[in-house]
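Exercise 7.
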Amino acid sequence: MSDDGQTLFTWAERKGALFHFDRRTDLGELGGYTLSANALALVTFGEDGRATLFDLTWSRAPISLGALRGAALAADGKTIATWGTDYRVALYDLGRPTWADAQPPTGVAFASAVCAASQDAIRPFPKALRGSSRADIDARALKPDDQRIYETLRGRPWNPCDWRGIATIFPGKGPGNKWFEGARQWLRLLSVRILGTRDYACGEINAQGDLDPRRTDSCQLNDSSKTMP
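Solution. The predicted structure, written as tokens, is:
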């Protein structure tokens, strides 16, 4: 029962359900769950390992957290720590609204908002899809869909938060942002795809090829996670 007495969570014979006033929400078969101490936040784990966050004050819709190995909620339910299938840990602040207004942005504005808030937690594309040469691509990238992804990513920085549109003129606040960076990246993309010049290495954050230590560390984490049990 939640602290406000308005929501009841039940889990019996591996099937979960939420009761809020006269409304029942069936959660299906669950492999487990994590409940905050005040019972105002709930994370459920499906049989496939995919997790969902429920705000038991019903002030926001359920949020899919993807496949996780585990999660922990703060006592007040306002902070969650997740442990991903790649063994990486992330912290999320649930006490602040995700967007300044009720409706999230879309398109380029959405990508910009995500990168502004969480770019240090966003990983580069895996080497299996974004290798700097065809020799780097493993057997999975020989599939038609993966090959199309490789061709789309070729000539771009490995981390999507380092991409700049061609109209980007002014340098941004982040590291590596230079004047006319959008046009610089576009010229390098054409050079890689048409002239066959050197593609970006993982960790390069701009067209000039500057390396950022945080990006490099993220590349190493991506590689090391594949070797862990």
